[in-house]
Amino acid sequence: MRTSHSLKSSRNQNKCSLLSILGGKELAILRGTKKLVAFYTEREREDRALRRKMLIASKKRLLAVHENQRDEIVKNIVYKTPVPSLDELKPRIVTAIQNVIPQMLENTWREIEFRLYVLLATKGSHVQVH
Predict the structure, then answer these.
(1) What is the pLDDT along the chain (130 residues), one digit of tens a residue?
(2) Is residue 130 part of a domain?
(3) What superkingdom heads the lineage (predicted)?
(4) Residue 3 belongs to some domain of the structure
(5) Domain range for residue 29?
(6) What are the C-alpha distances in Å from 126 to residues 21, 46, 59, 67, 108?
(7) Which residues fall within 8 angstroms of residue 35, CB to CB, at 6 or more apart?
């Protein structure tokens, strides 16, 4: 049976091992809530914010590229031959959108996921993927 002193010392050992596992960051455990809070230096906080902004910008750029590709595909189908009137243009647009099969969407999604993984691996830095 453990005494209260041995329980306290085992808790302190757990906290120390937790601190060493987490890379030496200065950590605090809030009493009662058991919530782990990391205290970063101002420089680390700025670096994290900059990386987050770069990742968001890269994601936006990536999604914009895919939207443009999708629009180009639809335009190539719709404007294959010259359109004499708007009445003929409307059915072409509808059929072009209806002809997009789920496999095309899955392939596009798979490519977006791959590029997002590349962004995460490079921490948001610009990389040319072919």
Answers:
(1) 444 444 444 444 444 444 444 444 444 444 445 555 556 677 777 777 777 777 777 666 666 666 666 677 777 766 777 777 888 888 888 888 888 888 888 888 888 888 888 888 887 777 666 6
(2) no
(3) Eukaryota
(4) no
(5) 21-122
(6) 31, 19, 11, 19, 20
(7) 29
